[in-house]
Design brief:
28 strands, globular
């Protein structure tokens, strides 16, 4: 099995590791230190060796930060992780705070006057540092960059080695475009931005541009590396030599020069007197400082690979369709198991996650999970990003709900789907809440919107059925998804947080409203959908984008209170189930197929 169910941290980490860090801070003459979740590549999901926040605090969420001062410390996370953070972090060592509002900046405003607070410039974007510097200055404190990270020194010999997964070609039959063509396009974009070259540090951009995949980032086929791309489309690619496979040099060709990672510093210095494009949201402050010291002129702009990567081409979209049908068959077999066998055996969350993984493995095409499966029984389902580990693992129980969120990595696409199932007979309240979430989900599935609309502008449409009932959920409605890349991909998203990026044809996003009753159960419904080209609407005046559903797996009809649905919503559910049966049914047989036919019958 790919997924581990062992605890990797515990609340004692704070008491054990804070003193070690403070010793190192004293040696460097520092009064404090900033510890972001992100690593040198601004990754959300991290190699074990780069999960510094987890080592220090015990908190394993995918977003957060900590501030350590001489006499106190605080750890921060967003609303998705409030309950998890309380469980994983020792509140006697760390004040537990939210990232909402001004978050870390608000904490720094109260730093001791004259304090010198260190930070590792390789781990912070220049934009985030600007706000933190301003906050520290307001307190009369100073932020100081460090050459040697004191936390890494405190971690010492126990720190895992950096990953060295092999970097392999990703064939054009999956990518839909050769890397030579991509480099020519990106080179033209660099020139159009008024630059001579661009520095790329995002693993997803490296993988997409050169049509390669790796395995350095957990559950994502991403290689850690950097690239310098010239306006003529030629490039230098910096990788640990241990990751360079025999076929890679020939795959990259003569216009891409492979260099070892330790050659990067000199290559950046060689950009003196050049105009260099670099993304302040994707690349750390260290790159900006190095380029400025070398005498380069910095052009601050979005990573030129971000939009082309996010707006999938027809080959990638068709690959995603096929990956989702394959994955939908595995998921339907799993849902049949939950609806029959598991109702009697009442397995624990480990067996639930392992069973879903087994069905995905049986496709013969699974390369990896796209993230560790969230299998939340009862109150664990009320934790939006719960992971079944250690003594937290529960058995499913009659009268409660089971929330399962998982996905697969396939050569032709990345999947991410959530279904919520009743265990035993659902209560009227469970049916009501599930149907409200379903109404929110449908609202985002059927929406039409004009060219230039952002996900931020759409978010309230999904929340409206919940808001009208006095409810809400503390996470985004949708995130971008890559094509055999990361399960979370920007710049597109659907969320309350302001994001001006328009949704473009070919962008894949999740649609995942939810409801979480702390201490009882949680509900989330998630499918992936792709933005369709703008088309005229009969009687209308402007062409409108829409969404095509990619995920096909049945909803638990026992949880649907049909009387709460409008006629149009009923038509949508029946049509979605009919399409699920038509696409997934041919891959099933026997009892699973008979079950699917029943689940997909008209309401």
């Amino acid at each position: 099995m790919r997924q581990s169910f062992d605890e990797t941290t515990d609340p004692s980490f704070g008491a054990r590791h804070l003193p070690l860090l403070r010793e190192r801070l004293a040696e460097q003459g520092l009064d404090g230190f900033l510890v972001p979740h992100e690593d040198e590549h601004q990754n959300e999901y991290l190699p074990e060796a780069n999960d510094r926040l987890a080592w220090l605090t015990g908190f394993t969420g995918s977003a957060g930060a900590a501030v350590v001062l001489a006499d106190r410390a605080a750890v921060f996370a967003d609303g998705r992780y409030t309950v998890q953070m309380r469980a994983q972090v020792d509140a006697g060592q760390f004040e537990i705070l939210g990232l909402e509002g001004k978050g870390v900046s608000a904490y720094l405003v109260k730093a001791p006057q004259g304090a010198v607070i260190g930070f590792d410039p390789r781990l912070h974007s220049p934009d985030s540092l600007a706000a933190l510097r301003k906050a520290a200055a307001a307190a009369g404190a100073t932020l100081k960059p460090v050459e040697a990270n004191p936390l890494d020194a405190a971690w010492g010999a126990d720190r895992p080695a950096q990953p060295q997964a092999p970097v392999v070609p990703h064939e054009d039959l999956y990518s839909g475009e050769s890397h030579a063509s991509k480099r020519a396009r990106i080179g033209a974009a660099i020139a159009a931005a008024g630059a001579d070259a661009a520095v790329l540090t995002a693993p997803s951009s490296i993988a997409w541009l050169f049509n390669v995949r790796g395995g350095d980032v957990i559950r994502s086929p991403l290689p850690l590396g950097q690239a310098i791309v010239k306006a003529d489309g030629s490039a230098e690619l910096f990788l640990d030599p241990a990751k360079v496979t025999n076929q890679l040099p020939a795959w990259l060709g003569d216009d891409v020069v492979l260099k070892p990672s330790d050659a990067l510093d000199a290559a950046l210095d060689a950009l003196a007197d050049h105009k260099v494009l670099i993304d302040p949201a994707q690349s750390s402050a260290w790159y900006f400082d190095r380029l400025e010291a070398a005498g380069a002129t910095i052009v601050r702009a979005m990573d030129p690979c971000a939009i082309p990567r996010a707006a999938k081409n027809p080959v990638e979209i068709e690959g995603s369709r096929q990956a989702h049908i394959r994955d939908g068959a595995a998921l339907s077999r799993f849902l049949h198991w939950v609806g029959t066998t598991a109702q009697e055996t009442l397995p624990d969350e480990r067996e639930v996650a392992q069973t879903l993984e087994r069905f995905r493995e049986e496709t013969g095409a699974l390369k990896d999970l796209s993230f560790d499966t969230i299998a939340g029984a009862g109150p664990n389902g009320a934790l939006p990003h719960y992971k079944p580990v250690g003594d937290k693992i529960r058995r499913i129980e009659k009268g409660s709900l089971l929330l399962v969120d998982g996905g697969g990595q396939y050569l032709d696409g990345t999947t991410d789907v959530t279904r919520t199932m009743a265990i035993g007979e659902p209560t009227d309240e469970q049916r009501r809440m599930f149907t409200l979430v379903l109404k929110s989900h449908i609202a985002m599935a059927v929406i039409r919107f004009p060219v230039g609309t952002s996900g931020h502008q759409l978010d309230a449409i999904a929340r409206q059925p919940m808001w009208m009932a006095g409810l809400d959920y503390d996470h985004g409605t949708g995130h971008g998804v890559g094509s055999y890349l990361g399960v979370h991909e920007g710049p597109q998203r659907i969320a309350k947080a302001v994001n001006s990026q328009p949704l473009l044809t070919g962008m894949i996003l999740s649609n995942e409203p939810g409801y979480y009753r702390e201490g009882h159960w949680g509900i989330r419904i998630e499918t992936l959908q792709v933005v369709t080209p703008p088309e005229p609407i009969p009687g209308g005046e402007r062409p409108m984008h829409g969404f095509e559903q990619l995920t096909f797996a049945p909803h638990d009809r026992r949880l649907i209170e049909v009387s709460m649905l409008t006629p149009d919503e009923r038509v949508y559910v029946d049509a979605y189930h009919a399409e699920t049966l038509a696409k997934v049914g041919p891959l099933l047989d026997g009892e699973a197929l008979d079950w699917l036919k029943g689940q997909c019958a008209p309401l």
